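hey m, so remember when u said the tokens were messed up on ur end? i reran from scratch. heres the input so u can diff it against urs
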Amino acid sequence: MVLKLLIAVSLLLCIASFTEGFNALMSIDLGSEYMKIAIVKPGVPMEIVLNEESDRKTSTIVALRNGERFYGKEAENTAVKFPRKAFWYLTNIIGRKFESADVKLYKERFPYYDLVKDEERGTVLFKIDDETFYSPEELIAMLLEKAREYAETFTDQSIKDCVITVPAYFTQAERKGILSAAELIDLNVLQLISDNAAVALNYGVFRRKEFNGTVQYYMFYDMGATSTTATIVGYQVTKVKEGTRLETNPQLIIKGVGFDRGLGGTEITLRLRKHLAQIFNEQKKTKTDVFTNERSMGKLFKEAEKLKKVLSANNAHFAQVEGLLEEIDFKTKVTRDELEELSKDLFEKVTKPIEEALKVSQITLGEIKDVILMGGGTRIPKVQEILKKYLGRTELGKSINTDEAAAMGAVYQAAYLGKGFKVKTFGVKEASIYPITVEFEKHRLAEDGSDSKRVVKRTLFNRMNPYPQKKVMTFSKHLKDFDFNVSYGDLDFLSDFDKSSFQDLSLAKFKLSGVEDAFTKHKEAGDSKGVKAHFRLDESGILHLDQVEVVFEKEEAKEESTWSKLGNTLGGLFGGKKEEGETIEDAGEKPVEVPADEEDKSNKKSDKTEEKTDETKKEKTEKGKEEEKSENKTDDATNKLNGTDSLNKTEADLKDKKPNITVVREKIDTQTESFDIPEVNKDSLKVMRKKLAELTDKDKAKKLLEKSKNDLEAFIFDMNDKLTQEMYEKCSTEAEREKLTKLLSEASDWMYDQEEDAKAEVYQDKLKSLKKEIKDLKARVYEFEERPKALKALKDMLNHTKYFLKSVKNFTVVEEDRIFTEVEITTLEKLITDTKKWRDDMIEEQKKTPDSEKPKLLVEDIALKLQALDREVKYLINKAKNFKPKPKPKPKSNTTKTDGNTTKSDTNKTDKAEKEKETKIEVEEPIDKPTDTKEEETKTDTKEEETKTESKEENIEKSEKDKEAPFKRKSIILETLTGNL
């Protein structure tokens, strides 16, 4: 039992040391109105994080007032009273230029914000005062920092890595803006995952057993606060390469996406707010226009949001706001029909995203297994009615948690990507919403011999191309330095509003230098394979140009000896051969080759056709490999039968003089000129980090100040109450209580007279001084309460120790089993006697001492006596446990041989005497007894053999009992000793 306990403890220690090496991971579902946070840590499954108000979601709003920051409910209240000081819906303008349509719409919706242009980056800045400006990246960084704080408080661990959700339609600049915000607070983003992919992952993880080799299509319709997205997802079980082996796992692929960036619940709320404001103005209770009062409009916005939710479940409801303007209350009745009439043009757009998703995916409604609703906007009855009619369904899927599905899907991906977690693989292939093209000048000699130029455009990533993906574009006819542009492709599928946000389609210009030098340097290297530009669309949907290089292939005929050829052949069986001059750039999936100088046919093929082509190629390749293997097997078998296997191979090797191909790569220098929104430079990044760090320090100081105030106030209130309790009255005098009451009253007055900018240390010092004054009284009360408990424990210990001593004495009678010495027994006996005497004397002395004075008998002294007894008893028990009884000496045996038989006899004197006696008895038997001689001899021999066998068995049993006896005795001793305790 003890061994099992030790093993269990050591196992727990191993697990603890293992989990300490890994931190928790988090996901942030960063919506425009709310954010949801989920965590996973060793030993704890995926879970939603609660904020300070114990809510499972937090408003994505941050308020800045008087140099302090507010979040959650406090920030919402600030938005009502001081709308211009509370900032939200920040994801709508991050990564957008100041002149874009999104920023103009943001100004219309929230006219009280003072927005200015960042002259350096061309983006938006929120003006707080003449000296203070904040970018959307900084404000979002504050929200991400608060999300991490909630997660770290929830898990009691530091968190460095996370996965963040973004809308599927986010552009390159918007995605980079979120990454910049995370970088400002040193938060490592493992991946930016589109919210529709995160929801689809969450849906698929719990239904993985339902998927097979046949693709199953689902549609996710998400109407959120500011946008609407329809996504068609295909689920299928496929073979995926995991490390060095192929494993069969489910996978989801985004097949089609349609969206409307302006259709959402917030627009309905704003229209409802406008309707309420007009009603208030029509009542003509005030001369002031309610539209001109920021605080009144903030109150109406809050009431409109509440009214919208109520009308989703009721046909009518009263909207009412106390003291809306000039202390005048407002109340009016609004019906669901009125709300639907206000949003009539919005409801006409409900099915547009679905139509676009079906069109781009080339999938029909009949192929879709289920339609899953997401987002708060889908709770509106009119929206559900329109969707049912368009989709031809009586019911729509509502099987997932609308608020938390994206956060839970993202945290599953975080656990898959993070270290220290092992989750079942579920592949995720997102899709590029916007096509990306490469533009460059193509030179050609005209008929008159002049150099003619024309701009050529090639598609690099088509619309709905899955990612992550690598592509290599080859410029085979460029022999000199040149440049090319990367830009968005055809965006005709977007609405006019969305297209207006793309003022410039160009993303970046790349200037290549050293191309001509590379060709000159390697002009004798052989055939040129052109200039290759390696592009990568990573897991977060961000485009990278990893490198540009010129590639040459040179053929070298090299004759090798038979043994060298044989060695190479054998080496090829056990490992790959690295060509001279070749560098392995990618250990993963082979990049797709995109020829730049051939006619662009990519737009003529649909993605579906491309997928089928790839599958066909794969099947042909696998089929070819199988045929080649079967042919090789047949040839090998034939050669072995003929006995000419090695001879044929040698002759073939000698005849085969195929040239070696050497690949030479020369890297090209690349300069990048960004046409998109530039990333935050290092100097600006330092300034931003410093600003955020100062605000964080202020937040910490504010929390410490509040805690110090609360601690002092709680102590004063608690002690005022205790001084009236019977126990405190017994342990103090009237004069002492009056003195302490006065001190507490003065401290209370002092606290409320302090300035608002007082430091936390002032309150902490005041609390220390009060505790010092009350220290003696609290000590006496403690002694008064705990002394009876301590005396009872000492009494019980003395009783147990007395019986223990008695048991010890009983087991020391037999000298050979003596475990304890006389000194040890005497020491324990004396300790018991002295402790009893000390206890009785101190109890008498304490009875003579009043409770209001310092006690003579202290709990600490009693504890020391208990400790001394316990220590002595444990020493004796440990000695008994480690005691090894001396086994009885083994009897010596003599061996004598008679007529080839071996007889063993004991040397024990008693055994000898018995044997002699037996011999004498046999000799003294009468000779004239009538018996058959032969028969008698046989009987005698049989009896002797039986006697010998019985004697031998008895001796073995007796020796075994003698061996076990000391240990059984030790076990009995230990049970008896410990039983008395």
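this time it looks ok to me. The first helix runs from residue 2 to 20. if urs says something different then somethings off w ur setup not the seq
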